[in-house]
Amino acid sequence: MENNSAPRGLIVDLITPLKNGAIDGTGLERLLARVLPHAQALLLAGPRHGEGERMEMAMRNEFLKKAIDAAAGRPVPLFVWISGNTEAQTRQNILALQEGLGGNRPAGGLFCVDTPLVYHSNRGLPDYYRELQTILTVPLVLHNEPDCVHTPRTFKRRNIRTAVLKELVRIERIAGLIFSGSLERAHHYQRACRGRKDFRIYDGDEKRFLEHPSMGGVVSVGANLAPGAWERITQSSIQLHAHRENYPDRLQQIWESGDYLKNMVTLYGQSPAAMIKIILSDMGAIGTPEMLKPVEIEHDDINALKTLMHDFGDHF
Amino acid sequence: MLIEQAKEVLQIEAQSILGLTEQIGPTFAEAVSVILRARGRVILTGMGKSGLVARKISATLNSTGTKSFFLHPAEAIHGDLGMATPDDVVLAISNSGHTVEINKILPILKQMKVKIISFTGGLDSPMAHHSDLVIDVSVEREACPLGLAPTASTTAALAMGDALAVVLLKSRHFSKKDFRRFHPGGSLGERLSFKVRDIMVTDDHVPKVYPDTGIRPALIEINGKKMGATLVVDRDQKLVGIISDGDLRRALTRGDDIYRKNVEDIMSSTPKTIDEETTSAEAIALMELNAITHLIIVDAHQKVKGMVHLHDLLGREGFKINGE
What we know:
- The structure holds two protein chains of two kinds.
- Chain A is an alpha/beta fold.
- In chain A, a hairpin with a 2-residue loop joins strand 2 and strand 3.
- In chain A, 41% of the residues lie in helices and 13% in strands.
- The termini of chain A are far apart.
- Chain B is an alpha/beta fold.
- Chain B contains 14 helices and eleven strands.
- Chain B has helices at residues 2-23, 26-37, 48-63, 73-77, 100-111, 126-130, 152-171, 176-182, 188-191, 215-225, 245-253, 263-266, 280-290, 310-314; strands at 42-46, 68-70, 89-93, 115-120, 133-136, 208-209, 229-233, 239-244, 273-274, 294-298, 304-309.
- In chain B, strands 2-1-3-4-5 form a five-stranded parallel beta sheet, sandwiched between helices.
- The longest helix of chain B is centred in the first third of the chain and has 22 residues, at 2-23.
- The model of chain B is unreliable at 317-324 (pLDDT under 50).
- Chain A binds chain B through residues 183-184, 186-187, 190-191, 194-195, 197, 201, 210-216, 233, 235-239, 241-244, 251, 254-255, 257-258, and chain B through 8-9, 11-12, 15, 18-19, 22-23, 95-96, 98, 100, 121, 123, 125-126, 136, 138-148.
């Protein structure tokens, strides 16, 4: 059994460096060298920006193994998305992940991330997780992301019901929740989780975090591009570290970094992974901008993003 | 849009307070117990916005019967720490618990055997480790973007401070009269709106002698009742005069052998009187007009009901409340 306590802070929703349809180990090393110094954790094969929805579990496992190697012992927790299309497939994914790793665990700890409503309704969800924890040897982080719950579906809801979450929080192996949704729902969820002091709620919505930061932290795909700025804002927002620098223009710098990130989030809009890959590839931070499913990108948007980064002093 | 944004902020702040209701536990009760047992004062400390919250909590504690003062952590390092005694209780406020200035003074206070209570969201912070009791005021979300200013977290600390003050108030059986003693109207204007009947000295607290009383017993009455004068009444308790310090001085100046005289020989026989419905403001105005410091409250038959001194009206030396 591993430590259940999930980290606070910046969790980088890592884009998946690809080369000819496989994980690009060299690109991954370069990317991790770029983001690891700024991150409290990494999310690998995230369903949307990490393209986990399009990856078989074998590929996710390969991604994890290469990430462990590339992290080279640095104690950063790794989150891996393990959901399948069915309960059985998810169970198999978990077993495959645990068996595949053997003793080669990440130095900072491993967390499975599951988006239950992809394959399970709210009904019976607590029982399902109680049973699942009998095979889990690592802690689990729930993922509530309505955009991952595709229609048409036989399930009625696209969010975990608050009453169901209240029961799930009582399950010891469940360490946290990555949340996207309305602020009202966020309040309901927070109320549901108050029974567990060590339960973390992360903002899965970057914009929300930039407006009203959750004290657990944020899962950010933009941090692939601007890890330093995201680190600065996360630390400022949730007072992550003991020492708070108080140089004269600190607030102005924070304000400018915040504006920079808000503009960046707006610019990469609906296709963050594809746009970020193109820019990282142009920067030489990854080998190719390859996606598992190609996405059409407007070059004007890319140029606007590059200009924004250049104006802020971030590489271009 | 603006209204929606404002509503979001208020919702977040409201949630931060509601969250405290589930976080509060036996530690809070222990903190109340520690403060109730303390012979000294509650010393509030905090930096920045938390310092402002600490000042407000200190003011609330003082208004509700718990002696308190604010100690600036930076000033404390430079000598103000001498204000603390082992009888005191320190209540330190920092959301992160990493405030350097506070964490510098807490070990010294601990050495002085001062009990330390902290309000913090950093339950594993240095401040929490220095504290005897840690009250969790962590919030789930801040309303202000980018950490530019603490919002929900300071609201939570402030609300917890109010909870502490009110629980202490109830535990001490603090009454309305106590509140008025410590909080005499909140402003002079409000104080002056009190009726004289609420402030006047009554019954055995009123210094009284009969006209045929000697001067020595009259002086004993003046000294004993500490009003700076004594009333002179007949056997039916009807007012017939007053002897004040001024009357005694005038008699001595004339060369009278006052110890051979009775009070009726030197008293002023036309003391100023008012009824008990007179306001404090009117009473003060009457005193100013006549250059006197006492007024006597009588009923329709000139029977003495009470007496009031200028000090009672202005609240100097403590605000006396009728019946205490």
